[in-house]
Amino acid sequence: SRNATIQHLVPLLALVLLIAQAAAGPIFPARLGPRTATMASGAVRVGLLRLPLAEDAGDVERLRTAAKHAAEKMYVLLEGNWGVLSRPEVQRRLLFVYDELGLAAPALDVRVILPGPKAWLAPHATEIDAILACAQEQPALDELLKCRKDDGLPELPVCSIAAPCPASLLSVGWGDGDCENLPAGSFDNVVLGGTFDRIHAGHKLLLAMSALCAQKRLLVGVSRGPLLDKKELKDLVHPLELRTRRLFQTLYSMRPCVAYQIVPIDDPFGPSITDPNLQCIVVSKETERGGQSVNKRRVEKGLNSIHVDVVDLVGPEDSDESSKVSSTALRKLALGSFCGAGVPGHCCNGGEQGARDWARRYTSDMPYCIGLTGGIASGKSSIVAHLQTTYNVATIDCDKLGHVAYVKGTVAYDELIAAFGAQAILDDSTGEVDRRKLGPLVFSDPAHMATLNAIVWPAIRRLALDQMKQLAAVGTTVCVLEAAVLLEASWDDIVDEVWVVVVPEEIAKQRLMARNSLNEDEALKRIRAQMTNAQRLAKAQVTLSNHLLPAATATQVDAAWEGVESRAQCCVNATVSGGLVERWNTMCEHFGVADLLVRAHWWRKLRALYTGPGRHYHTLNHIDELFHKLEKYKNVCNNTMLLTAAIFFHDAVYNVQQQENEELSALLWEEFAAAAANLPSGDVASVGEYIRRTAKHHGQGSAEGDLALFLDIDLSILGSPPSKYAQYAHQIALEYCHIPAAQFCSRRGAVLQGMVTQGSIYFTSQVKADFEVQARANVALESRFLTAAGATLLPYDP
Fold it and tell me: Which of 120-124, 659-663, 767-771 has the lowest mean pLDDT?
């Protein structure tokens, strides 16, 4: 079935990004002939492919061939007269494109460019690296690229593909405004609703059909709050602000000529039953009854009923609804995967960077320790049992250590009696602490719980470390430390990676009531006295869920275990050629930080910061890029080690909602520098100055020497090729997703305008010569598109 992709995409998405699939053709600018350099397979990060709107026999081969040349994203321009097609015909064509590209490259982000003014120029898609085309298309490409140049858009190279070329593509396919016509069945004001978590092919089809239905305005309600309560794995749903920003980026990338209103909704109806100007609601086949309910409520409120447009996301040939792609399925795929930090997929660097530049906490004479945690009744024990049975993993059970920590004769035993009284907590016959007495006492009073924790947690920590040393003595290389309060007690600083087990509160409640013979109120009191799932996930390297079938849970655990042994070999003293860990180790040696545990502690701290939630550009990739620039300009650098330190620490603290990032990053550097034996105070101050100056590159006057070079390479991204700069601009927009999109466009535009009105973006002559012209062109183009994008965003007054 041609509609198979949206069904079969889920299992295929578990594959790694398909980059090396086939040899790519030469890259050459249109009209100039082939360049000497060629691109290897997958070297085009974002490609643009022309395809006839009318079905052609060579479509499948053309799509699948093109998919081999794009590593991350592909824009598809369907050329022809959209106005002669019915909505079902349009839907079938769009579904076909998503189908075939999904089968050929499951991880490829596909966007179909929809009709609109100058849509065929793809003016808004500055992230495109190259046009994917065969040689016969050259005359049409000449015209396309000439029009792009006349419109002030960057030149695009052409990546030659060996694919069929339909006759309709041999000449321009957008004559007489064909690519601007809308298919039949459009309305001025259209509404759509959904969660839009982890936007996938089904979402894109629904969004495309909605954008095509709207001539003037598309109102989109995005679920939050109580609407998420019944979502499976709701703790892995992305934050509202991130979902909203990605939703707008997706809509705008497909059809930038529509006015968009994107609003949060707390009930299933939102503005669909209050906006008197609406004429149509777009729903999926499975939510068709919801569209009918909207009309019932509108009539009850004295409003007009509206047309219900139904989009079938899997097509008439498909019947197995259980396997179709969904956000829930994508959240399940994130389970068991190793990520940098935070909820998988919350930021671009978690799952993508994975174990890159990982480092264990201790040297190899100690076991590599996995900290397994989760709320009460989350199913930690069954996961431990699987690890023990399947992989023979040694386990440290902190719950059992808790029993030992305060037996008679221990310091903790005496402290508990002093705090709570013997009569209140001791067993009358044995004189030991009775947990059945202690439990209700502490779970009903937060102050009592804090007292208990202050006494028992340090004792358990000492016992756990003793057991780790005992395991090391018998040659154990990997162990698991199971602890419900791993994060609350800050024991994550004695383990190498954190695995968090989550289950819905309702399941945890039922398990706890059955296991401990508690009533509902008692069970909920215990669950809610603990850290929330969201708080735990913010510190997780691996997320597991034990609410599924045992086989599904086992699959997650096996996936999580897969890379443990290789990560256990990653030490800060290991030589990793060209990696950030090697640079860190070299810098520490130079500064006289001899203690390997100190090196590991600080590297892990920095790595956790750079891979934390909310980062999309200011990640380890950014640090790596700056080191490549430092290598390029090392001949004009006076002290490369001081600039190395500045690069590592300058964005360590990065919270876009606070103003003290640079100051806090500099203080972090100074704290680290206190452990360095060979670091004069003047050098410490210099690095601190470099870091603090990044708060306002030009706002504090001129700069010279290494300071000037550091500031310049920090802004070198501005002078990147247009497609790379566009990627950076998208990432910055995601980092500031807490700011409404229209405000972001305005404020970001003002910042960029300030850059181009100053004398020069760069201080040093070398960097200026390499990047100034391109940086100004990039900034001007982004300013132009921010203005255009901002104009499509309408405020909504409920």
Answer: 120-124
